[in-house]
Amino acid sequence: MLRHLSPSHWQALSASCREIRELPARTIVTLKGERVRESLLLVGGMMGRYVPRPVGARAQMVALQVLGDFVDLHGLPLGVLDHEIRTVTDVQLAVFDHADLLDLIDREPDLGMALWSLTMIDAAIHRHWAFRMAALRATVRLANLFCELETRLALCGAVTGDGYDLPLTQIDLADACGMTAVHVNRVLRDLREGGCCTLVKGRLRILDGVRLHRLGAFDPAFLYLPD
Amino acid sequence: MLRHLSPSHWQALSASCREIRELPARTIVTLKGERVRESLLLVGGMMGRYVPRPVGARAQMVALQVLGDFVDLHGLPLGVLDHEIRTVTDVQLAVFDHADLLDLIDREPDLGMALWSLTMIDAAIHRHWAFRMAALRATVRLANLFCELETRLALCGAVTGDGYDLPLTQIDLADACGMTAVHVNRVLRDLREGGCCTLVKGRLRILDGVRLHRLGAFDPAFLYLPD
DNA sequence: CGTATGCTTGAATCACGTCAACTGATGTGG
DNA sequence: CCACATCAGTTGACGTGATTCAAGCATACG
Questions:
Q1: Angle CA(A39)–CA(A128)–CA(A119) in degrees, nearest 5?
Q2: Average pLDDT of B176-185?
Q3: Which residues, other chains included, contact B160 with Cβ-Cβ below 8 Å and sequence gap of 6+?
Q4: How many CB atoms lie within 10 A of CB A188?
Q5: A78 in contact with B at a CB cutoff of 8 Å?
Q6: Footprint of strand D on the protein (CB under 7 A)
Q7: Mean pLDDT score, B93-117
């Protein structure tokens, strides 16, 4: 979502980046209830926010973070997180100390408002996830997720040629959509045989974008696209 | 969520309230895509945020606002809303002009952070709704919603005696939980016959709070309760 | 090699939606 | 006052979308 920051804000921000950190896939970055003192900007790979569940059950994914997302900026005003943050793939993260960010906001209130806006777009995406889970059936739900990711990834130029890289397993997709991996598999087959899209070796190929958007009942208004 | 503001912040804020507005039930307050120039603090009644759906289908409720909620504070940094806001019951609203709020934040950056925090708690509630829709089955889902509302309403003293006022129809509950009104009816019967709670004439009576919380798999961490 | 992981498919089961009918409460106009 | 419409709630019968359980395959890896 970096496109939502002005160049000058972006410059001020990047100057206070403390380090670039690399983490492998399937790593827990922040635990539920943990005190957070830094915020992470995702510059490579994918991460997820998860609500833990009773032992034996997999956690429920409630957000998927992609290139350009400020992953746990929510922890800046709150100081504590109510959910887990994990890497899904290998990731590269730009690390910002909360103390530095607060300094920056103090000196440039405009930047503070811009960062607040970023978190409000996150909130809009959360609402969309609630909508998707509640109102859409499996096939529409998955198609809708693919449309959302296409739009968000296009913002940072990560949609190329016939689709985009989506290095998620069918289990990840099931976690993201509140369904079983078996059913994800069947829905993917339907989408493939229906000529909408294919997901092979971590790449989503969009065969018919118009049909995919129509099938997924997708309206990108909630992403507050610039321009 | 007024309990999350300090007394001094609360005092500064209430001084800039422009008016108290009353609206009848089932009124659309803000349309999707509409420019917003004021924010509304709910001081009586209930409202909802809705994602519109194709003609013929009812809109999907994605948030329920109760006494003490700053209903569309999200519109302050963004300027536009991506969803509809409607009253569910008759409501009383304290109205704040965005211009006044921005002034206030300018003079008291701390208050700005406090307001940001309020919206971040909203975001946490959104995540919880996504979790509830995706991970919980009908009975657990409804029980969980009742627990959430109990906790939120208790924050402003609206839980009295054996329960709280919940002036929602079964259709409203269906919209809030992503299920049909018929199924809500059956689940309510199960909860009643199971000795958990009853919903009669707009009042939720909690017969066995412990059982309700256990059945609803409820963990209030996401509400960032004070103290 | 053997083992783990992800993908794929079939058959049985279950949760929930759909359709339909009926009730009781409330309201409205003749 | 009654006839009628409307709306929320209730219940039964039936259909279907999704889960569960199970088995089989392919690929990667130590």
A1: 25
A2: 98
A3: none
A4: 19
A5: yes
A6: A 137-139, 178-180, 182-183, 186; B 169-171, 181-182, 185-186, 188-189
A7: 96
Which residues does chain A have with pLDDT short of 50?
none
| A131 touches B62 (CB < 8 A) | yes
- Exposure on the CB side of residue A200, measured as CA atoms within 13 A: 9
Nearest nucleotide to A192 (CA to C1') is C8
Q: Among A99, A108, A59, A52, which residue's Cα sits nearest to residue A79?
A: A99
Q: How far apart are CA A117 and CA A124, in angstroms?
A: 10
Q: How far apart are CA A42 and CA A69, in angstroms?
A: 5
State the CB neighbour count (10 A cutoff) for residue A70: 24
Query: CA-to-CA distance for B212 and B150, rounded, in angstroms?
Result: 11
Please give the Cα distance from B152 to B179 (Å, whole number): 23
d(CA B111, CA B124): 20
- Contacts with A128 from chain B: Cβ below 8 Å: 51
Burial class (CB in 10 A: 0-12, 13-18, 19+), B75: buried
User: Any idea what DSSP says for residue B218?
Assistant: -
B47 touches strand C (CB under 7 A): no
Question: What pTM did the predictor assign?
Answer: 0.97
Per-residue confidence band for B2, with pLDDT thresholds at 50, 70 and 90: low
Query: B86-110 burial, b if ≥16 CB within 10 A, otherwise e?
Result: bbbbebebbebebebbeebbeeeee
Beta-strand relationship, A60-65 and A47-51:
antiparallel
pLDDT at residue B3, as a whole number? 66
Report CA B134 to chain centroid distance, whole Å: 19
Closest CA to A119 of B84, B119, B39: B119
Phi, psi of A132 (to 5 degrees): -60, -45
Residue B182, CB, strand C, below 7 Å: yes
- Secondary structure (3-state) at A56: coil
What is the distance in angstroms measured between the alpha-carbon CA of A176 and the sugar C1' of D14? 32
Residues belonging to chain A: 227
* Integer Cα distance of A21 and A40 in angstroms: 9
